[in-house]
Amino acid sequence: MKTFKDISTITYCSNEYLISQLNGLYNMGDIEFWAFIPHQAESQELKNHTHLFITPSCKLETKDLQFRENELVGTMPYEKSNFGHWYFYSVHNDLYLKSHKLEKKYHYSPNDFVSSDFACFMARVQTLEIDEYLDNSTNVLTIIKKAVCDNIPFSNLVTQGYIPINQIKNYHSAYDYIYRDYYDKLNGTTKPF
């Protein structure tokens, strides 16, 4: 498939091999951005693997990106991708997985990713709004309510990409209001939520 759109795949190559191959393409100007995250095998999966995301800087033939570290270790076929969906699935975000009726044993953080430019990667993550990628009515306020009930600090929601930066003050106010209301109810008059 020839494409200039974002693509992703699963690969079984080592981190060192991937970094070498991807940096070569990045330095030649074929790739504008890349990121990957190694995953431990879940119960239904046979072996550890890596989720890879690429933004081409020109039209690429994906068969030319079929990295083969050796005869037994290679890359699955590429698919057109969306960074938000790829990120929330790759990090095994609970809300994202539940909204897509999926469940995973292992969960990851943004610091588990390797990227051509980690600052650029984090900037992309910070612009994501989780509710745009959910398949049900789950939204940011639902996430905030769950975080308050689970005693998760607001800063964690921001660093994990749940809170859009351009609305951080509004959601922080909502978090504070829900937090106060929740603990007032716990200590007093009515049931929480």
Provide keyphrases for this structure:
16% strand, alpha+beta, 193 residues, five-stranded antiparallel beta sheet, Replication Protein E1, Chain: A
Question: What would you say this structure looks like, in words?
Answer:
This protein is α+β, with helices and mostly antiparallel strands. It folds into 2 domains: 2-128, Replication Protein E1, Chain: A (3-Layer(aba) Sandwich); 139-193, no CATH class. Helices cover 37% and strands 16% of the residues. The protein contains 7 helices and 7 strands. It has a 5-stranded antiparallel beta sheet, with helices on both faces. The chain has a two-stranded antiparallel sheet with strand order 1-5. Helix 5 (140-149) packs across helix 7.
CATH class of the largest domain reads: Alpha Beta
| CATH fold name of the largest domain | Replication Protein E1, Chain: A
Strand order of the main beta sheet, please?
A: 6-2-4-3-7
Radius of gyration from CA coordinates: 19 Å
How many E strands? 7
Helix content: 25-40%
Strand-residue proportion = 15-25%
Overall mean confidence score, pLDDT:
87
What pattern of helices and strands is seen along the backbone? EEHEEEEHHEHHHH
Unreliable stretches = none
Q: What does the main sheet amount to? A: 5 strands, antiparallel
Number of helices in the DSSP assignment: 7
Name the CATH architecture of the largest domain: 3-Layer(aba) Sandwich
Tally of discrete structural domains: 2
Broad structural category:
alpha+beta
User: Span between N and C termini?
Assistant: 50 Å
Shape: elongated
